[in-house]
């Protein structure tokens, strides 16, 4: 028998044993299960869950990797100003909006709405009637109406329904002060140097036909007037009051030189709720707006706004399609100047509901509109409307993922449970 000592001393025995041992080691390596490699910090694969759990600050670090993550909270939610249109008589809605502002940590600037029976509203309706008589789309004239001798019907002008001044200044809106023109003159006091002649008194009883809405164009309006099957809608105090309240805020924005050319303002009506992360959403959306944009719609109705493809790199930002409702929209000062000039054009002013006017402007490419999809501002329809019958619910209701006022309600309920 060979001893270990003799094997070591005899090279003829040692070499074969060494070779056997080497082959055994190789076969063990090849057939033995191997441990998975642990990815490095630079690897795109995830680290093992147990390692991530041990890094308590990992999520905190991830919340600060984008430039927008470092932006401090803004009392105007990343904009320059936030306006809320509210009737002074609707204290219930004012308190509700103040609660919303407090919950968002925001500063709202309140501007008075307009009552549908206010004297200025009634005066505008009469001015619209006179303008329609010049346009030849009402059946009965009133004293002072009709075309002046030799006056060219406005629908024969290439610019109809807008004034040449409004169209000429769409490109360079800052080249001329806004001033007072068009329908601005309709409500000036008689003492003003630009005031128009006094309106003739309305007949009593007033049996004149209603003032029909101006549709897409004059031809379409005549079709509506001539086709009884379609019925018709008339210019009303509610339509004029809504238009007037928004127009007053738009003029304020347009004339606010502190905003520069690109300063932005959010205009809200007083029956809305907003996504709790609205400010963060804006930070992710605003950089995607192209040069020359006018209006951004975080709130709308009657549309999902998904017809057009998103702006590359900004999946929630899309060119607007056919949105209605005007309960929440962002406009820059440049857009406010353009929009004000279009809205006051006598042939266009107060001729349809304001949201239909905005839709017309975007579809005729007079202004550049973009939408956030899905919506982040909705009307709640929980209080009686001053402009329509009831609360306005049931026609088109949108819902938020994380409504701010719902969070407020949940907090109040939790605090009530904690009270012994």
Give a topology summary.
Blueprint: H1 4-9, H2 11-31, H3 49-53, H4 58-62, E1 81-86, H5 91-104, E2 109-112, H6 119-135, H7 164-168, H8 218-226, H9 237-254, E3 264-269, E4 272-274, H10 278-285, E5 295-297, E6 317-319, E7 328-332, H11 333-343, H12 354-363, E8 369-372, E9 377-379, H13 404-418
Parallel strand pairs: 1-2, 1-3, 5-8
Antiparallel strand pairs: 3-7, 4-9, 5-7, 6-8
Descriptive report:
With 420 residues, the chain is α/β, with parallel strands linked by helices. It has 13 helices and nine strands. The chain has helices at 4-9, 11-31, 49-53, 58-62, 91-104, 119-135, 164-168, 218-226, 237-254, 278-285, 333-343, 354-363, 404-418; strands spanning 81-86, 109-112, 264-269, 272-274, 295-297, 317-319, 328-332, 369-372, 377-379. The strands form two sheets. Strands 2-1-3-7-5-8-6 form a seven-stranded mixed beta sheet, with helices on both faces. Strand 1 (81-86), helix 5 (91-104) and strand 2 (109-112) form a beta-alpha-beta unit. Helix 6 (119-135) crosses helix 9 (237-254) and helix 9 (237-254) runs antiparallel to helix 11. The longest helix is centred in the first third of the chain and has 21 residues, at 11-31. The radius of gyration is 34 Å and the shape is globular. The N and C termini lie far apart (92 Å). Mean pLDDT is 82; it is low at 31-43 and 227-232.
- Principal-axis shape equals globular
Kindly report how far apart the N and C termini lie: 92 Å
Strand line-up across the major sheet: 2-1-3-7-5-8-6
- Look at the helices and sheets and give the structural class: alpha/beta
Strand element count? 9
Helicity range: 25-40%
- Largest sheet geometry: 7 strands, mixed
Order of helices and strands: HHHHEHEHHHHEEHEEEHHEEH
Give me the number of helical elements: 13
Report low-confidence residues grouped into runs of 5 or more.
31-43, 227-232
Q: State which percent range the strand residues make up.
A: 5-15%
Assembly form of the protein? single chain
Quick check: average pLDDT? 82
Taking all Cα atoms into account, the compactness measure Rg is 34 Å
């Amino acid at each position: 028998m060979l001893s270990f000592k003799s094997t070591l001393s005899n090279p003829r025995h040692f070499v074969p044993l060494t070779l056997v041992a080497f082959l055994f080691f190789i076969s063990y390596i090849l057939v033995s299960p191997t441990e998975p490699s642990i990815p490095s910090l630079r690897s795109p694969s995830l680290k093992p869950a147990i390692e991530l759990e041990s890094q308590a600050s990992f999520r905190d670090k991830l919340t600060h990797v984008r430039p927008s993550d470092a932006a401090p909270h803004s009392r105007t939610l990343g904009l320059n100003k936030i306006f809320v249109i509210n009737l002074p008589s609707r204290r219930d809605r004012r308190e509700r909006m103040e609660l919303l502002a407090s919950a968002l940590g925001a500063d709202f600037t309140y501007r008075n709405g307009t009552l549908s029976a206010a004297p200025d509203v009634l005066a505008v309706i009469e001015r619209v009637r006179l303008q329609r008589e010049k346009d030849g789309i009402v059946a009965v004239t009133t004293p002072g109406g009709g075309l002046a001798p030799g006056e060219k019907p406005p629908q024969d002008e290439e610019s109809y329904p807008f004034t040449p001044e409004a169209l000429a200044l769409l490109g360079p809106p800052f080249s001329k002060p806004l001033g007072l023109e068009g329908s601005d003159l309709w409500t000036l006091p008689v003492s003003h140097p630009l005031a128009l002649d006094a309106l003739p008194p309305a007949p009593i009883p007033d049996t004149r036909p209603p003032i029909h809405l101006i549709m897409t164009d004059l031809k379409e309006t005549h079709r509506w007037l001539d086709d009884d099957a379609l019925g018709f809608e008339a210019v009303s105090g509610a339509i004029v009051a809504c238009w007037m309240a928004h127009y007053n805020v738009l003029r304020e924005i347009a004339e606010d030189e502190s905003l520069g050319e690109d300063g932005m303002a959010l205009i809200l009506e007083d029956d809305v709720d907003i996504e709790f992360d609205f400010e963060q959403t804006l930070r992710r959306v605003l950089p995607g707006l192209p040069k020359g944009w006018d209006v951004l719609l975080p709130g709308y109705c009657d549309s999902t706004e998904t017809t057009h493809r998103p702006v590359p790199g900004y999946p929630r930002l899309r060119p607007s399609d056919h949105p209605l409702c005007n309960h929440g929209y962002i406009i820059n000062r440049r857009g406010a100047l353009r929009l004000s000039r279009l809205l006051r054009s006598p042939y266009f002013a107060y001729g349809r509901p304001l949201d239909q006017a905005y839709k017309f402007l975007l579809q005729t490419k007079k202004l550049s509109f973009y939408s956030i999809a899905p919506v982040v501002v909705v009307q709640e329809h929980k209080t009686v409307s001053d402009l329509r019958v009831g609360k306005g619910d049931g026609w088109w209701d949108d819902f938020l993922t994380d409504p701010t006022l719902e969070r407020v309600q949940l907090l109040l309920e939790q605090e009530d449970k904690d009270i012994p």
